[in-house]
Design goal:
The complex is a heterodimer of chains A (295) and B (306). Chain A is an all-alpha fold and 295 residues long. Chain A is built from 14 helices and no strands. The two termini of chain B are 22 Å apart. Helix content of chain B is 70%, strand content 0%. In chain B, helix 3 (76-107) runs parallel beside helix 7 (169-194). With 306 residues, chain B is mainly α. The chains are: A mainly alpha (295), B mainly alpha (306).
Chain lengths: 295, 306
């Protein structure tokens, strides 16, 4: 915490006014950031008449959970009126293996690249680092061809493959940057005692890694769950992830526009990552800043 | 570095085991490296190749030279997308940096509820752009959103219909994008502020420097790398912006909010123009590369010097 602050220790009237102004500004910003979430929650609990007569920003006149149950298992996405439930399941089935595989491979790679340095390790690091910045638009067309060739077009398995392939570079970088700061002596001592590559990994390195594992898992889960571009490009119909289904639901132009159902559906799609953020926000921020600053 | 030569002397299976043991790190990394070479670099080459062909719905491997790179600039749709990206990029990056820095400096004044406030400012980064786009889309909708709310309060002539207005729609995207990403700048700048050497600040304070002087002379120069980092990330986000557009406006009204990313998607999946989709993707990659490579190069060099 920066030691000095605007009040500088003096307890004068102008200093107090300054503090008040700071808190006021922070509160206004907080209201701005919370407003869309508050509107989503309120709207999802309203009925349609209420929304049409009173706008989204008014407090609900009466509460109903109709929109939530409708969004979950009745709303029409395309021609299928199944609600978001099956697409939510798709996202889970997609995200869990992709997160697990990419995190595990990232840990192994990061360990091999830092503790068993070999010729070319820096080049590999550079290749992966640059890969994390490329706009995915440039790989979409060949990926669509490849998935078709492999018989994985429009399947959740195909999305698992895609997210694993384009997640490994991030996970490797996370673990590499973390393992760089682990003392090499730990590994050297164990290898002198005869421990091999995997023994050192399981017995010594992994037990030192819970925090970076949490950071990586949260980062990957958030990225993969929230992905839209890959989902929209490589799937259609019943294999869509929840973000794509939500977008289709909101952009459906036929019938009466049910704003409350849109908002409930949006909250359902946001719930898993929002929950992770509330429970483990500290690790999310670490991933965000670590991933950002050092690539 | 750690080299196990146990098997080298005894020959036979032990030799194989020794070889395996020595090369195990490379063998473990190999699948990921191959995946990266194929899925990143191989695919980039494929896309670049397609951009030099006349592919329509299906890939056509006959080269036609750089024709597409000339043709694309004759499309008003592409010119609009590039111009929109310029407007959006400048405003999104500028306002996000400004808001993020203001928030960080305010939060750095020994604030009571700092943890809670930080959580509030940053939560949009955890949510899908499709979700937040949905919320903003209906908030901006004149019939039920902010315009309707203000009119219901009695200001009957109040108008806020930017999202349906060709000239103003791009600014609604800026508002939503700033809302989503400014907390991220706040988090980065705040972390950097906390890393500034307190002793120097204290010394300057004792020498009678004023707070603005301390910020201008000591704090801002020492956190400059973070500004650069945040700037690069925001620019990268801006060029890739796609989800938010699809959720809020689908690029409309007309093409008023189309960006290169939506142009590419349109050409690839709606209009059967693989050649133009590939061309636009390559131009996006070149733009990102021009920003990222010098940045990464200077970062890595700075890292070596430490």
């Amino acid at each position: 915490m920066t030691e000095l602050s605007i009040h500088g220790g003096a307890n004068t009237a102008s200093a107090r006014l300054g503090r008040l102004a700071i808190y006021g500004a922070l509160a206004i910003f907080a209201a701005f950031y919370l407003m869309p979430l508050a509107v989503m929650v309120m709207t999802s609990l309203k009925d349609l008449d209420d929304i049409r007569t009173n706008s989204l920003l008014a407090l609900p006149e009466r509460l109903t959970t109709f929109a939530w149950s409708h969004a979950w298992n009745e709303a029409c996405i395309g021609t299928e009126c199944t609600g978001l439930a099956p697409y939510f399941v798709n996202s889970l089935v997609m995200a869990i293996p992709a997160v697990a595989i990419s995190t595990f491979l990232g840990a192994l790679n990061g360990y091999a690249l830092t503790k068993w340095r070999f010729r070319g390790a820096n080049l590999i690091f550079g290749l992966l680092l640059f890969g994390s910045f490329i706009p995915f638009q440039v790989v979409i067309l060949p990926m669509a061809q490849t998935l078709g060739f492999m018989g994985l077009s429009s399947s959740v398995a195909g999305l698992v493959l895609v997210h694993t392939a384009y997640g490994i570079n991030f996970t490797t970088l996370f673990f590499r940057n973390y393992y760089v700061s682990l003392p090499d002596d730990l590994v050297r001592a164990a290898t002198i005692d005869g421990a091999g590559f995997f023994t050192v990994f399981w017995r010594i390195v992994l037990p030192l890694s819970p925090s970076i594992i949490v950071v990586t898992v949260i980062w990957q889960f958030t990225q993969i769950w929230n992905d839209f571009l890959f989902g929209a490009s490589f799937t259609s119909g019943g294999s869509q992830p929840v973000t794509v289904a939500l977008n289709n639901l909101v952009n459906t132009t036929t019938g009466v526009k049910m704003y409350n159902v849109d908002m409930a559906a949006a909250l359902i799609a946001a719930a898993p990552t929002l929950l992770v953020y509330v429970v483990a926000g500290r690790y999310f921020i670490r991933g965000l800043t670590a991933g950002a600053v050092k690539g | 570095m750690a080299d196990t030569r146990a098997g080298a002397a005894s020959g036979g299976p032990a030799r194989v085991a020794g070889w395996l043991q020595r090369h195990l790190p490379k063998i473990v990394v190999a699948p990921s490296v191959i995946a990266a070479l194929v899925f990143f670099y191989g695919f980039i080459i494929w896309t670049a190749y397609i951009s030099l062909t006349g592919s329509r719905m299906l890939p056509d491997y006959e080269l036609i030279g750089f024709q597409n790179y000339q043709d694309i600039w004759r499309l008003s749709r592409w010119n609009t997308a590039v111009w929109n990206l310029a407007i959006f990029g400048v405003l999104f990056i500028g306002v996000s940096m400004l808001v993020g820095c203001v928030l960080a400096v305010l939060l750095d004044q020994r604030i009571r509820a700092e943890g809670a406030l930080r959580t509030i400012y940053l939560y949009p980064m955890a949510i899908s752009y499709i979700v937040t786009g949905t919320a903003w889309r209906w908030l901006m909708d004149p019939e039920i959103g902010i315009e309707a709310a203000v009119r219901n309060l009695g200001w009957e002539s109040f108008t806020f219909d930017w999202i349906t207005n060709r000239d103003m729609a791009i600014y609604t995207i800026v508002i939503a994008a700033v809302w989503q990403a400014s907390g991220f700048v706040m988090a980065m700048v705040l972390a950097a502020l906390r890393g500034v050497d307190q002793e120097i600040i204290k010394a300057a304070w004792l020498d009678g420097a004023s707070l603005p002087q301390i910020y201008r002379r000591i704090i801002i120069p020492s956190i400059r790398p973070v500004f650069l980092g945040a700037f690069v990330i925001l620019m990268h986000l801006a060029i890739k912006t796609f989800d938010l557009i699809m959720a809020m406006t689908s690029g409309g009204p007309g093409t008023a909010t189309s960006l290169p990313a939506t142009f590419m998607y349109d050409m690839a999946f709606q209009r059967d123009r693989l050649d133009l989709a590939a061309t636009s993707a390559v131009m996006m990659l070149v733009t990102v590369t021009a920003i990222i490579v010098p940045y990464l190069y200077s970062e890595i060099r700075a890292g070596r010097r430490d």
